[in-house]
Amino acid sequence: MAGTVLGVGAGVFILTLLWVSVLLLCLLLSRASGIARFSVIFVFLGALIITAVLLLFPRASEFPAPEAEMKIVDAFFIGRYVLLAFLTLVFLGSLFLVLIHHILEPICAKPLQSS
């Protein structure tokens, strides 16, 4: 299914964006004074009309056409495992250096005072 995210198409995202923006606009207009406060009704009715048009006149068919099965081939298979082995060696070497320099830190003797 081309053009889908999480199994839903672009229409769901358009409707979500429409209603979120309408709700925010209604919140802003409800704080207004005078006749601008009553424009909330027209914004809400406009959103209802746009939603009805988008739901009643879909662009695509209800059932998508079956797609041909694609065979996935990993051409970088060997290189990926070489990179994994290299990173594992670097990690183990870094862990060894951490053990030497931080956990097994040498304690040096203080110099003697000369009289």
Mean pLDDT: 85
Instruction: Indicate the low-confidence ranges by residue numbers.
Output: none
Class from secondary-structure proportions: mainly alpha
Radius of gyration, in angstroms, nearest whole number: 33 Å
Shape summary? elongated
Hey, roughly how much beta strand do the residues contain?
A: under 5%
Multimer state: single chain
Number of helical elements: 3
Distance between the termini: 87 Å
What proportion of the residues is helical, as a percent range?
55-70%
Q: Tell me about the biggest sheet?
A: none
What's the number of extended β-strand segments?
Answer: 0
Order of helices and strands: HHH
Give a brief outline of the structure.
The chain has 115 residues and is mainly α.
Characterise the protein shown here.
This protein is 57% helix and 0% strand. It has 115 residues and is mostly helical. Helix 1 packs antiparallel against helix 2. The model has no long low-confidence stretch (mean pLDDT 85).
Q: How are the SSEs ordered, and which strands pair?
A:
Layout: H1 10-30, H2 39-56, H3 77-103
Defining traits:
115 residues, mainly alpha, elongated
